[in-house]
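To the wet lab folks,

You asked to see what we're planning to order before we commit. Fair enough. Below is the target structure as tokens, and below that is the sequence we designed to fit it. If anything looks off to you, flag it before the synthesis order goes out.
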């Protein structure tokens, strides 16, 4: 009865521990991948390198390649084998033959050393290249993510800058339409000037609307590049002075 109670209690402890692990895992993942309120380019890149599935898969592949290499190289080490056989009767069987059946215990231990193995030799020669190839694949994935996030980040900033410029144009053209309407009502300009001002205002409004719709898709693409699954809005920020200095440095270094 005591053994059964202990087994049940151990099972309950295991179930409780597993349940707490399942609950705490999303919380830990959320804390590890939390984003600041305002994101710079470095914040976006850092988050993408931790969350982008392609980078994570490349890191996993690199780790797998390392384990495979170690497994193949293990052939050089001495191989120890242990075989233990137990035959134990809880109750001695009753037999009619004169032979006596009893308990038996046998143990076999073997030790082997590979002197020459072509497969292990090949693995030893190619281990460095295999590790380098796996590492380079991870670096290429990281470079692709950094380039993609950087392009998407500045693409979003350009669209927002265009919206700001068009918003200023809309304010200026709206004032021009109001002034032209008053002048037309006063008889100082003809109807063509008033219509031309209205058309210019409508074109600016349409252009701003078009870029606003493009901005939504660009933000969604930036989230995809980052591996950011939340539907919340990304608030991006950049240092305009620092950006201009970097552009000047790149221009100076260009041939």
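Sequence we intend to order:
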């Amino acid at each position: 009865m005591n053994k059964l109670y202990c087994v049940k209690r151990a099972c309950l402890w295991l179930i409780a521990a597993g349940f707490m692990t399942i609950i705490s895992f999303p919380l830990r993942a959320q804390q590890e991948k939390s984003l600041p309120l305002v994101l710079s380019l470095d914040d976006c890149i850092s988050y993408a390198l931790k969350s982008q599935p392609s980078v994570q898969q490349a890191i996993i592949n690199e780790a797998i390649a390392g384990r495979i290499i170690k497994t193949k190289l293990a052939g050089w080490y001495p191989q120890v084998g242990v075989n233990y056989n137990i035959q134990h009767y809880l109750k001695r069987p009753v037999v009619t033959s004169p032979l006596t059946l009893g308990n038996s215990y046998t143990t076999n231990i073997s030790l082997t050393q590979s002197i020459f193995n072509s497969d292990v030799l090949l693995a030893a020669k190619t281990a460095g290249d295999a590790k380098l190839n796996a590492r380079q694949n991870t670096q290429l994935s990281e470079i692709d993510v950094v380039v993609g996030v950087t392009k998407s980040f500045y693409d979003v900033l350009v669209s927002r800058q265009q919206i700001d410029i068009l918003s200023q144009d809309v304010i200026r053209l709206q004032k021009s339409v109001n002034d032209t309407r008053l002048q037309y009502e006063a008889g100082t300009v003809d109807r063509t000037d008033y219509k031309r001002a209205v058309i210019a205002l409508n074109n600016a409004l349409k252009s701003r609307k078009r870029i606003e719709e493009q901005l939504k898709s660009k933000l969604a693409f930036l989230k995809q590049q980052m591996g950011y699954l939340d539907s919340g809005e990304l608030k991006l920020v950049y240092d305009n002075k620092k950006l201009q200095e970097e552009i000047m440095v790149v221009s100076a270094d260009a041939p």
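Structural context that might help your review: Residues 34-73+82-242 form a domain with the Outer membrane efflux proteins (OEP) fold (CATH 1.20.1600.10). Strands lie at 79-87, 104-112.

Thanks,
Computational group
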